[in-house]
């Protein structure tokens, strides 16, 4: 019974995703990014049919379990672009470090300034890294891992929607710069957006995402320890 | 036939992910298993006997469908909708901070790389004048 439910949920999610992708191709507006529209449609359907997230995850877990190997798969484009990587390694390292530090400081201080609950601040701090990393960081620092994953999604989707608009406004066109911006701020979701620009952009974005995860896992607990 | 390759190669990539998870558990480091697995595979690709085509099709496939793989996690927001009603400012903070990160990191990288491009051009000019 569970297997049938799981299969149905997997097919349902995949179908919605492909329909949303077709809509996005017809109307390529930033707010119609497939990941955002698919999420919204699925949440609405679950609410209307009175099903819980736990029920959805019977099948959802199977889809999500491919995220790990998908991150591993970035080794291939990285290998293909190893020369670019070697040539601009220092500039990549510097920009990602600056972005990561700015993200942590701005997130934490804005939250303190708005008087948010300490547990919310701890969960929101690691928002710019991929969800498994953010969840393990927040459980280390005393935040709520599931909530951290939600803020990660907000950072990812808002970056995928508004990132390209901002990059265009600021006239940022260099492949490396585009990849760095999307990967540092919006991790895997930004990286899948970067793939729309090209292979080099997505490869650089996956490097940025990797580096920012490493920097965040070191800086975030340190910074929070100093403050709380 | 292509589906067969995709399934086998995804299994190989999954193996690297599990290896990464195992190493992470063993060493108790905060770098996630998937990234450790990626670094191992990236190093192996430089080894002569390891053929990049063993994982090429599977890698392309997984990267292409990556947004789909995130959907189950993003749907998780549904359990926290009441919290967003209670702390709507937290969403604004995450949004503003994300934009700060994009602007700062990409502008910095554009600048650093433009300088490098200029350097390459000026060196080429020097050679031309000689």
From TrEMBL, chain B:
Membrane-related topology note: Multi-pass membrane protein
Keyword vocabulary terms for this entry: Cell membrane, Membrane, Transmembrane, Transmembrane helix
> In the UniProt record, does the keyword Transmembrane occur?
yes
List all membrane-crossing ranges: 5-23, 29-49, 61-81, 87-109
Q: Which InterPro entries match?
A: LrgA/CidA
Predominant localisation class: membrane
Which Pfam families does this chain map to?
Answer: LrgA
The GO cellular component terms are: plasma membrane
Keyword Transmembrane helix applies: yes
Q: Where in the cell is it found?
A: Cell membrane
Know the name of this protein? Answer: CidA/LrgA family protein
Organism (species): Peribacillus deserti
């Amino acid at each position: 019974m569970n297997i049938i439910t799981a299969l149905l949920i997997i097919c349902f999610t995949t179908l919605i995703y492909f329909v949303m992708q077709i809509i996005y191709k017809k109307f390529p507006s930033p707010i119609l990014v497939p990941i955002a529209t698919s999420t919204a449609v699925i949440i609405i359907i679950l609410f209307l049919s009175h099903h819980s997230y736990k029920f959805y995850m019977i099948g959802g877990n199977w889809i999500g379990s491919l995220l790990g190997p998908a991150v591993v798969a970035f080794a291939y484009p990285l290998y293909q672009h190893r020369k670019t990587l070697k040539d601009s390694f220092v500039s990549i390292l510097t920009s990602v470090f600056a972005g990561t530090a700015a993200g942590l400081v701005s997130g934490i201080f804005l939250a303190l300034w708005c008087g948010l609950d300490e547990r919310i601040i701890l969960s929101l701090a690691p928002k710019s890294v991929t969800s498994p990393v953010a969840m393990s960081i927040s459980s280390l620092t005393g935040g709520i891992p599931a909530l951290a994953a939600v803020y990660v999604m907000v950072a990812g989707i808002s970056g995928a929607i508004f990132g390209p608009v901002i990059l265009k406004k600021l006239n940022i066109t260099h492949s490396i710069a585009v990849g760095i911006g999307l990967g540092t701020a919006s991790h895997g979701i930004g990286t899948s957006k970067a793939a729309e620009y090209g292979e080099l952009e997505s490869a650089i974005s996956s490097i940025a995402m990797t580096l920012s995860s490493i920097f965040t896992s070191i800086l975030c607990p340190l910074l929070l320890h100093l403050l709380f | 036939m292509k589906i067969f390759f995709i399934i086998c190669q995804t299994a190989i990539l999954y193996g690297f992910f599990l290896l990464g998870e195992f190493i992470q558990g063993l060493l108790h480091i905060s770098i996630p298993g998937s990234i450790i697995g990626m670094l191992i595979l990236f190093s192996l690709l430089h080894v002569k006997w390891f053929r990049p085509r063993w994982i090429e099709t599977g890698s392309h496939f997984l990267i292409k469908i990556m947004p789909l793989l995130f959907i189950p996690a993003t749907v998780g927001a549904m359990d926290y909708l009441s919290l967003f009603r209670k702390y709507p400012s937290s969403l604004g903070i995450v949004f503003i901070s994300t934009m700060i990160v994009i602007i700062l990191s990409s502008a910095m990288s554009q600048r650093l790389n433009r300088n490098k491009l200029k350097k390459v051009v000026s060196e080429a000019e020097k050679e031309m004048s000689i």
